[in-house]
Automatic annotation (TrEMBL):
The keyword Amino-acid biosynthesis does not apply. The keyword NADP applies. Coiled coil: none annotated. InterPro entries: NAD(P)-bd_dom_sf (IPR036291), NmrA-like (IPR008030), NmrA/Isoflavone_reductase-like (IPR051609), PCBER-like (IPR045312). This is NmrA-like domain-containing protein. Pfam families: NmrA. Gene3D superfamilies: NAD(P)-binding Rossmann-like Domain, UDP-galactose 4-epimerase, domain 1. GO terms for molecular function: oxidoreductase activity. Keywords: NADP, Oxidoreductase. The lineage of its organism: Eukaryota, Fungi, Dikarya, Ascomycota, Pezizomycotina. It comes from the Eukaryota. Residues 5-242 form the NmrA-like domain.
Length: 302
């Protein structure tokens, strides 16, 4: 039996549309979106949309998930309680695979990461709940760690390069290699996970579109923007200490929380030697840095 009926929750954010498009393009899935009553998002006609309350209880979610083979959660990873409710409902509804909202810039199984950022502790808490459910039911899970979203990260500043002001912050000399993935590659990985049900079950998998250093990215940006960049060289240790202290003082400071994710994803984000590195298993090829940079500069007018 294949995982054919797939439901996606959070299909309209940063990553969701890419996953939705990849599921539709695969042409083998019956795709459903769970959408909140308050949502104004619109979806293609081929997609079945089920409306749920803004604060659904388990009973409502069981009804909504009935008959589905797999669920992909693509809303903020900080919504752990809702993910746990979805997981409990998925078991009761007979869903066979749960893909939680990990998709991390950083590794949610790393002690260092868990100590620095509560977001990742929340992702781990959800995964541990899925592990517990897998031990007492037929539901399995797969978590995907992809590194910084490349195209989104270049446009949003997550990669510490500001395309418009041509300024960059470079950590520890800029020669540390880190894994990064485009939204399209992550979406393809999700499709392949569903297509390789047995090989991917109950696993934390790591993927990348490419593994780069900040200096390689800087050189590519300089080549394709035709301009020199103003670079600030920073010690990651000092930067992490400074930002962490600010976040501890004011946990609602979103900009500084993102700064913390940003630096750790760069200095501690190379997946190539991880046991769960799955590019080969999922048939993902290497993307070309210059092509991605040229596209990003074109689409941002940079
Ligand atoms: N590696 C990276 O660089 C990186 C970057 C960003 C995010 N991420 C990760 O990627 C995953 C997805 O993040 P995202 O930024 O794409 O998501 P998002 O934009 O925060 O949320 C996606 C959509 O979920 C829906 N939503 C929000 N709250 C909801 C709720 N309580 N119940 C149901 N639906 C809700 C909203 O759609 P409607 O308004 O239509 O309901 C929203 O547009 C997360 O795990 C996040 O940590 C990773």
């Amino acid at each position: 039996m294949v995982l054919r009926k797939v439901v996606i929750v959070g299909a309209n954010g940063t990553l969701g549309p890419a996953i939705l498009n990849a599921l539709i393009a695969a042409n083998t899935f019956a795709v459903t979106v769970l959408s909140r009553h308050s949502s104004t998002s619109k979806y293609p006609e081929s997609v079945n949309v089920i409306c749920i309350s803004n604060e659904p209880d388990t009973e409502e979610l069981v009804v909504a998930l009935h008959g589905q083979d797999a669920i992909i959660v693509v809303f903020a990873g900080s919504l752990g309680d809702l993910q746990i409710r979805l997981a409990d409902a998925a078991v009761l509804a007979g869903v066979r695979r749960f893909i939680p909202a990990d998709f991390g810039s950083c590794d949610s199984s790393s002690q260092r990461v868990l100590g620095l950022m509560p977001l990742y502790a929340e992702k781990k808490r959800v995964r541990e709940h899925l592990q517990d459910l897998a031990s007492i039911s037929d539901m399995t899970w797969t978590s995907l760690i992809c590194g910084h979203f490349f195209n989104y990260g270049l446009k949003s500043g997550l990669l510490q390069f500001d395309i418009h002001s041509r300024k960059a912050k470079i950590f520890d000399g800029g020669d540390i290699s880190w894994s990064t993935s485009t939204l399209e590659t992550i979406a393809l990985a999700v499709v392949r996970i569903l297509q390789k049900e047995d090989e991917t079950k109950d696993r934390l998998l790591y993927i990348q579109s490419l593994c780069i250093t900040q200096n390689e990215l800087l050189r590519s940006l300089e080549r394709h923007s035709g301009q020199g960049w103003q670079v600030e060289y920073v010690s990651s240790g000092e930067y992490i200490r400074e930002v962490k202290a600010e976040v501890d003082k004011d946990p609602s400071n979103k900009e500084r929380r993102v700064n913390l994710v940003s630096v750790v994803g760069i200095v501690d984000g190379n997946w190539q030697d991880k046991a769960g590195f799955a590019n080969l298993l999922l048939g993902l090829g290497e993307e070309n840095l210059d092509t991605l940079v040229k596209n990003a500069l074109t689409t941002t007018g940079g």
